[in-house]
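Onboarding guide, step 5: your first structure request.
Type a short instruction followed by the sequence, for example:

Predict the 3D structure of this protein.
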Amino acid sequence: MRLFPILLFPTVTLTLLVAALVLTAQQKNDDAKIAPYYPTPETIVDKMLQLGELKPGEKMWDLGSGDGRIVIAAARKFKADATGVELDETLYKQSVARIKTLGLAPTARIILGDLLQQDYSSADLLTIYLLPVAIERVTPIFDRQLKKGARIVAHDFEFRQWAPAKTMDIDDDGEGRSHRLFLYRR
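The system replies with structure tokens like these:
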């Protein structure tokens, strides 16, 4: 009889631990579904920043920044104050290391975190390459936070609730596929 409570506790603890691990894995899978890592070709990076009319000193954000290529281009080529948000720790570390190696730390940074939990109120330009489900989730955040005149460049997937100020079709990125960019102004 004395063994039963001892055996019950580890079983309950193990069950709770397994449930917590499943929920954590499910959360990571959900996050991966809204912003899977698919690197934007360099030619498209430049076109996104050009379409967004990024100017030196402006505050630029890249949501789901992956390996940091858009943040790095914004800081390096356009002299912007660039911030990326990345959930994947490996990609975050890779981006931070590259930014440091290039000497861009004063004007480029990556936040390790959830793109749905950030404050974008200072943004002049946001770049996104998100699936439609993610765009649906960021739309109310942008509606609440973005200042008048802020710009958003979306790659391939549009904001259904908003009309784009401009659309750019790119027939071939050099890698054998076409792209569509959407510029939005708030």
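Each response can be followed by summary notes, for example: The two ends are 69 Å apart (CA to CA).
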